[in-house]
């Protein structure tokens, strides 16, 4: 059995605060994660945490390499350090996915702030809903810009900006959103995530870097003069040097030995709507084009028109229900709102978040209301009379073919069918149930309150009774129950957009887009539920094509050919999506075509114009430049990743062993341990009773609780062990009973000595903690720190110290020397960080001066040209005009010279001020706290 001294040591080893660039810092965060962390992700997270003086970093790994996991590791590390003012700003469509990923993979609680939740928190007494304790704040870019005043009031520990390429044009005067975000988070350390930091102009790279740290480059003019207007290998080398400390990028080809990529295989199923279906479509389309529409609020007309079009294309059942809703609202003199259709069209909140409306409202005329109600009743009657949908029949035709295709690729016979409407979902459930899939269909949506889902949920609760997999949150547990039902028993999942957010369906490799979103980022999100990490098979993607609708066909062409969403390798489509700043903007443009174009020629002309407009964005002009500046092909990348792979496995195993050993000591009377597995049954007390497992995969497979350092039970054990006061004692190390070989400990067999363990805390740029092992034999031989730690591996007995003398004076001398060495190590490292910052500020100052000097050189050239003009001029009038122009330019040059001198003084003053701020942080203090002293004997 181990001793309380062992327990205290392990508790400290598990919770030491490591330095920014310490490998242990990330492996501890990885040990708490429910995900297999790859070496390149550790590399990226270490880069993001590298310097305590850094203002942030850009993680620009190629698509499909898991930048969310990299950011999750950094957020986890900040959380563990109790720096919990964390904000994640993302496109609206990714908010829920981020919340799920943080909770499921990293156990980080979060809250999505949008208009409704923001107002609710204010009503509860939170004057600033962004200033919450112990929750990661998640919001969209548009909401962050709208609430910048509140965000600016919070002193954030870290801001993560996902899909950060939408900010790359911040240097342009008309990019209000990007400038707003930049100003709002100016004083905050930032982590930018983007696979496409450079698309069409080097200035985009300047823009992204300036958001992280405005002192990396000079101003816009100096950057253009130095880098953007010239191209050479020397220019690229200088730019790479500047970017080396702020931007990192790993390529897919560099990690193929860790990650297997699969392909997408498209199937397109055509269908021809019946005459009644087509007539309904045409009549409702004409209605939506009316100049005055009283059933829709003028402030949201374009948004609501888009939603109605999507429901119209989904099914006659979807539009019929919505038309009845329009009729009821109009009868009560109330236009329909986004909130009214949210139950059926679940993507409305994301659309509304990024949609700009007008404030004009229609004047309600009773006669016009009667006329509009008559039309709506006619459309609703027609919709309700149509019981068979051509697209539904096409689904039955293609589904067996698609399942056979997936089966031939080695995949399970499972399909997820996505629809944009909850009413269409009910129609599909009935259709499939009546046509060979009875008992094999599961529904998944935002509420999951239908009888089938409730039955599945209740059965799931019985199956897992007493297991920690039950969280107590009905919404979370019913989602888990439905996904388990689909994975273990059912064949088909019919899902609304809720399943496209944060749900892992990698066990399925067939995606059916029954309704096709117009937002390509939303389509990618759907397919990404299956085509993701861990997918072992090629993924089949089925889409439907309406042969009587030219606009629908052109939308499909755009998504398939321009955005490459349905074919190619894992993540390839993301590269093209990176060209978009916002998928909602494209959705608006497509909606405009549907609304304004009536003939086939008009539709084709509008889509041709839209495609031409997208060409410059989608087809990057700077592929070679991006490779030269950002893609690192050095051999040391591969070598470093190999080292990280080995180190990560070793350190994670060490941490698990420390935690398991700690639990065995602290839970000796309340847990039964399985000696063959890292698993134990806990009888309860500080946490719920049940089975606990230190391996997250095996924990999931067995239905156990994942036991990790930040689990409440582990935290209580650590706190108990750390707080325990331990008197000096004798420890007898039972090396003869140890099954392995520790050569350095074996050499101490039969010897005795003294060991003091202390905790050294150093504060300068950041807080770091070290354990100091001062060991010596009775013969006066120094026992190195590594061997001292290994003395705690075998089991040991603890005995009272008895009549032994006090520790040898040499123990104190060794301790003092080790403290000096650690302080010197920290000082040297901080010196390197300081040198980096000073060099960065020097380059920034030089850039600004270069820009001013370049302007003076340009004016000198103009003066020379005007002199030549004056000399060669024939008429006196021309000579006088040239002289006058020359004098004006000389006046400008002289003014610029004065500005240069003044600017140089201002730049130098700013540089000195920044250096003084760094120096203030550099003041180093330290304290040493004794943990325990033991007399040891190895037998």
Automatic annotation (TrEMBL):
One of its GO terms (molecular function) is helicase activity. It comes from the Bacteria. Residues 48-215 form the Helicase ATP-binding domain. Signal peptide: none annotated. Residues 398-577 form the Helicase C-terminal domain. Keywords: ATP-binding, Helicase, Hydrolase, Methyltransferase, Nucleotide-binding, Transferase. GO terms for biological process: methylation. This is Adenine-specific DNA-methyltransferase. It comes from Alicyclobacillus sacchari.
């Amino acid at each position: 059995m181990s001793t309380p001294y062992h327990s205290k040591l392990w508790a400290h080893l598990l919770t030491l605060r490591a330095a920014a660039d310490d490998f242990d810092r990330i492996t501890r965060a990885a040990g708490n994660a429910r995900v297999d962390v790859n070496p390149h992700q550790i590399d990226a997270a270490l880069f993001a945490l590298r310097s305590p003086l850094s203002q942030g970093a850009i993680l620009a790994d190629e698509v499909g390499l898991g930048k969310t996991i990299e950011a999750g590791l950094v957020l986890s590390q900040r959380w563990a350090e109790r720096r919990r003012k964390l904000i994640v700003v993302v496109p609206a469509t990714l908010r829920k996915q981020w919340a799920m990923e943080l909770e499921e993979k990293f156990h980080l609680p979060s809250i999505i702030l949008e208009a409704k939740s923001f107002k609710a928190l204010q009503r509860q007494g939170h004057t600033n809903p962004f200033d919450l304790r112990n929750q990661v704040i998640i919001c969209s870019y548009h909401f962050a810009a709208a609430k910048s005043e509140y965000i600016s009031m919070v002193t954030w520990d870290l801001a993560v900006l996902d899909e950060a390429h939408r900010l790359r044009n911040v240097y342009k005067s008309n990019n209000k959103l990007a400038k707003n975000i930049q100003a709002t988070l100016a004083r905050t350390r930032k982590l930018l995530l983007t696979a496409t930091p450079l698309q069409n102009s080097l200035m985009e790279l300047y823009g992204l870097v300036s958001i992280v740290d405005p002192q990396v480059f000079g101003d816009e003019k100096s950057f253009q003069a130095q880098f953007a207007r010239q191209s050479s290998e020397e220019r690229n080398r200088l730019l790479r040097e500047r970017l080396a400390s702020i931007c990192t990028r790993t390529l897919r080809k560099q990690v193929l030995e860790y990650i297997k990529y699969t392909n997408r295989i498209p199937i397109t199923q055509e269908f021809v709507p019946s005459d009644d279906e087509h007539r309904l479509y045409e009549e409702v389309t004409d209605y939506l084009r009316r100049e005055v529409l009283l059933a829709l609020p003028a402030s949201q007309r374009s948004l609501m028109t888009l939603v109605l079009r999507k429901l119209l294309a989904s099914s006659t059942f979807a539009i019929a229900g919505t038309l009845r809703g329009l009729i009821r609202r109009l009868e009560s003199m109330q236009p329909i709102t986004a909130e009214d259709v949210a139950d059926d069209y679940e993507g409305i909140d994301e659309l509304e978040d990024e949609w700009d409306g007008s404030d004009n409202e229609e004047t309600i005329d009773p006669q016009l209301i009667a006329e509009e109600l008559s039309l709506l009743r006619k459309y609703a009657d027609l919709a309700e009379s149509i019981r068979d949908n051509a697209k539904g029949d096409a689904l039955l035709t293609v589904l067996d073919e698609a399942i056979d295709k997936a089966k031939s690729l080695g995949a399970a016979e499972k399909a997820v069918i996505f629809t944009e409407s909850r009413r269409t979902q009910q129609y599909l459930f009935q259709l499939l149930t009546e046509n060979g899939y009875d008992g094999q269909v599961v529904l998944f949506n935002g509420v999951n309150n239908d009888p089938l889902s409730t039955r599945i949920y209740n059965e799931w609760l019985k199956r897992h009774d007493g297991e920690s997999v039950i969280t107590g949150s009905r919404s979370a547990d019913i989602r888990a129950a439905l996904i388990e039902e689909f994975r273990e028993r059912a064949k088909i999942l019919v899902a609304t957009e809720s399943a496209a957010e944060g749900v892992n369906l990698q066990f399925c490799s067939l995606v059916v887009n029954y309704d096709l979103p117009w937002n390509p980022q939303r389509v990618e999100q759907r397919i990404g539920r299956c085509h993701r990490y861990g997918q072992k098979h090629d993924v089949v993607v089925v889409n439907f094509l309406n042969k009587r609708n030219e606009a629908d066909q052109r939308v499909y062409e755009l998504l398939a050919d321009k955005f490459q969403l349905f074919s190619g390798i894992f993540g390839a489509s993301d590269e093209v999506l990176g060209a978009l700043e916002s998928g909602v903007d494209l959705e608006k443009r497509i909606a405009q075509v549907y609304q304004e174009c009536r003939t086939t020629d008009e539709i084709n002309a509008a889509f041709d114009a839209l495609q031409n407009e997208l060409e410059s964005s989608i087809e990057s002009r700077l592929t070679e430049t991006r490779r030269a500046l950002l893609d690192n092909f050095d051999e040391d990348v591969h070598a470093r990743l190999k080292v990280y792979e080995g180190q990560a496995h070793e350190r994670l195993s060490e941490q698990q062993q420390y935690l398991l050993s700690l639990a065995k000591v602290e839970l000796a009377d309340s847990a039964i341990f399985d000696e063959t597995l890292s698993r134990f049954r806990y009888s309860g007390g500080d946490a719920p009773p049940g089975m606990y497992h230190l391996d997250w995969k095996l924990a999931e497979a067995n239905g156990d609780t994942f036991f990790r350092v930040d689990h409440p039970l582990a935290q209580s054990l650590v706190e108990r062990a750390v707080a325990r006061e331990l008197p000096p004692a004798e420890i007898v190390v039972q090396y003869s009973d140890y099954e392995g070989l520790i050569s350095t400990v074996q050499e101490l067999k039969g010897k005795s000595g003294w060991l003091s363990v202390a905790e050294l805390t150093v504060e300068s740029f950041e807080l770091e903690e070290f354990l100091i092992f001062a060991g010596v034999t009775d013969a006066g031989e120094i026992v190195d720190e590594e061997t001292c730690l290994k003395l705690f591996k075998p089991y040991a007995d603890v005995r009272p110290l008895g009549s032994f003398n006090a520790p040898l004076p040499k123990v104190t001398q060794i301790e003092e020397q080790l403290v000096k060495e650690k302080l010197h190590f920290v000082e040297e490292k901080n010196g390197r960080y300081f040198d980096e910052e000073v060099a960065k500020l020097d380059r920034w100052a030089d850039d600004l001066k270069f820009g001013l000097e370049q302007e003076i050189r340009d004016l000198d050239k103009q003066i020379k040209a005007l002199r030549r003009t004056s000399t060669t001029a024939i008429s006196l009038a021309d000579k006088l005009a040239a002289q006058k122009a020359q004098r004006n330019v000389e006046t400008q040059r002289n003014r610029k010279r004065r500005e240069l001198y003044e600017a140089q003084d201002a730049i130098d003053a700013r540089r000195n001020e920044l250096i003084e701020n760094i120096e203030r942080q550099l003041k180093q203090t330290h304290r040493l706290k004794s943990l325990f002293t033991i007399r040891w004997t190895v037998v």
